[in-house]
Amino acid sequence: MNNLKRVVLLVITISYCFSPSHQHRPPRLSLLQRGIRKKLENEPTSISKGFTTYFYDQTLDHFNYNPQSYTTFKQRYDLNFKHWGGSPRHAPIFAFLGDEAALGRHPRVGFMMENAPRFRALQVYIEHRFYGESNPLGSMKKSLQNATIRGYFNSAQALADYAEILIYLKNKLSAHNSPIIVIGGSYGGQLAVWFRLKYPHVAHGALASSAPILYFDDITPQDAYYSVVSKDFWDVSESCYKTIQKSWLEIDKIASKPHGLAVLSKKFNTCRQLRNCDELKEYLDRMYAGTAQYDDPPTYPVTQVCGGIDGAPKGTDILGRIVAGINAYLEDTKCRDTDYTPSYETYQGWNWQTCSELVMPIDHGYDTMFWPSNFSLSEWSKHCRRSFGVEPRPHWITTYYGGQDIKLILKKFASNIIFSNGLRDPYSSGGVLQNISDSLVAVVTTNGSHCLDLESSKPDDPEWLVTQRKTVFRIIRGWIKEYYATLSATHKLAL
Amino acid sequence: MNNLKRVVLLVITISYCFSPSHQHRPPRLSLLQRGIRKKLENEPTSISKGFTTYFYDQTLDHFNYNPQSYTTFKQRYDLNFKHWGGSPRHAPIFAFLGDEAALGRHPRVGFMMENAPRFRALQVYIEHRFYGESNPLGSMKKSLQNATIRGYFNSAQALADYAEILIYLKNKLSAHNSPIIVIGGSYGGQLAVWFRLKYPHVAHGALASSAPILYFDDITPQDAYYSVVSKDFWDVSESCYKTIQKSWLEIDKIASKPHGLAVLSKKFNTCRQLRNCDELKEYLDRMYAGTAQYDDPPTYPVTQVCGGIDGAPKGTDILGRIVAGINAYLEDTKCRDTDYTPSYETYQGWNWQTCSELVMPIDHGYDTMFWPSNFSLSEWSKHCRRSFGVEPRPHWITTYYGGQDIKLILKKFASNIIFSNGLRDPYSSGGVLQNISDSLVAVVTTNGSHCLDLESSKPDDPEWLVTQRKTVFRIIRGWIKEYYATLSATHKLAL
User: Signal peptide: which range, if any (chains A, B) (predicted)?
Assistant: First the structure.
């Protein structure tokens, strides 16, 4: 997912922001930083180049046999045959598993597209049900208003979709012996891991980048995400970290004064006057988290922000430094849009997914550079009941996919999964960072960020990133080589 | 399942039984031989001995989030703590996965009950959703009449039920590190395999007896079941085999004559007059298949039947020999109930399960001791549409669980499954009969029958059966030993 979402509950703190009304405010689902993430200098690779779009008549409900479940909907998938070695050679298939966004321009298909020629691989890119053109009722809004239809919008159904389409393709192309490698990042990375675990007869291996599969059911501490964000800032500059840490109380102080919000609005150049001080604090929260999550070379946003904060003229006060930090990162003079009520389908869809099954309890905790706050499941449930009338099932993900004691469980079960993580990415805290076995391998980079390795390579990529991608390439090549050997031994096929 | 069912379509043959009306007769779902299987001399072990019954509030629909799916129903499970070593010792849990019958007196829990003391294992026995007391609407009939509710009656939901209950139990008993071994036979054996594959974080290993996991989607030839039945008879007596083979035409001949059905009814001592000759042929079909499937020591029903057929006085005609065969097996003088319209819930439930997802195409083919007939999916679908208004999904089982190329797929994926099969059991033809890897092991006995190894041992058990059970015991002990070693290494726990 471009933006795994933080489930943030603003709770009662000792700050001035506290007022009785806050106690009853629903926890907010913070979409990740998209809005604040700086526009990429190099536009992402266009998925449309060389790809052709198809639609599959997908089963709405794979796990039931009531009349509704026999309904189908059109699911989009894109194919690129350009480099494929063909079925007689059992040439591989790379399948990029769509995440919580429409197919289209997607920076994360770079790795797949660059490596397809080397593997002579067919490229498949499948859209996740309910996003983009794969919505049963034509639009996310309509689907989410329909209490029956939205029920089918979940990960288990999505994995079964991928299985059906990939099996269909193999049959259609007579490519029964072509090994499939599934690829995904963030939520898509979770899906890739889960797909290899649940459908080993369809996917021969999985490359899962920045997939926080352990950020469920309290396997990972709730403050782990923000601890990494804070550590990223600390590593760049202790003074920057401390300035940010102090800024929250400053904001509260000013906000509590007469016309305080007007003062803050002006200071931060907000597009319209702030409604309350939380609005500003959460804007900043999203920005810091975003710079940490996408702390990509060559600019390294955290360094940019801290450069601004630390580099402000002597005597600049705390909030002045924060403003300087924002300006150093965003580098433009536009007003700052602190209003965070996105209407686009990714936000809406993700709100549903996290209100039903994907409950990832993430909050500041008490030991980060952010104001103290704790995730409360009961508040989250209240929000979900209010939004959809449903109760989240916080234990379902671990019931269905596991997660607890993953090393013990998978040491002698499963194979061929790469858990790729960059430690600057706050989501790496919910990832698998150690090898589980010879073929359940963690590829970890100290300086990597969220899903960076899946993006197209650039001339100025640092050495560690080049090495990371080479390592991943080598591992996948190893899987495929071994697969052909086993295939040959099992089927006595000449390859 | 006590009785994996054959999906038999009587098709047009050259026999006299042919009449235009047969062409349109729906294919019949033959329940396995229960009705004709001879009463066991030793009554099956009572499950109630030492077990206590509990009920779990089970989620009706694990894979959806529509309002209906939040409904729960009471699911029965039985526990026996007598031999359990307790959670501080991480003592194992044996979980018998219910199949298509109510919990209760079940011959297949013998192995579990006998071995629990040796493993100091907690015994759990979970009823399959919709059977027995675990029916959402209180009765199978009511549930099957409800097009929405019956939709939730399938294997994927059943596996998720087992996962929920077992996780709940582990939490409740603080037995997080107690390894669970799931056990099942026939359909329950399929469930055990699939459970280990889908929920390795819940089950550490699976013992699957007589589980024809490959009898789907044409992985196994349609006539494989009847080929084994025929081979069982051939191995006992070539002349017996040939007598049976000739008998079908004899029946047709007599049936085609005036009052032919009355003659046959009298000859075979049917409880009421035969409606057509198919009724008699299918009665015999079920009996032969049943004797082969349950060709258990010490009596060996196939040998009994052939003893009667071959031992009839010289000059006895073909049908007279067949009658002698039946009498030798059933040993009583009651009339023969050829009417096959069972009303009990197992039959009804299984009819639904095979009409939705569990499509196992089984028929005589052209080279067995039975009359030629072929399975027709379109006829089967017609029957299902007529019964329930639904279309079977014949490819779903292999889509979700796999099956094709199982050796290639699982060689380096999964572990700790015993595929136990007796080659006299016709369902062994759809089972895994060769080791896939070190820990995906086939235990095969030449003389074994359907699920025999799961039953209680008896003083006169033949040596091969005693050895088979010992082998299974040793393998499971090995898994648990290895588990404790890994647990200790991973958690650094003193055991």
Answer: 1-23
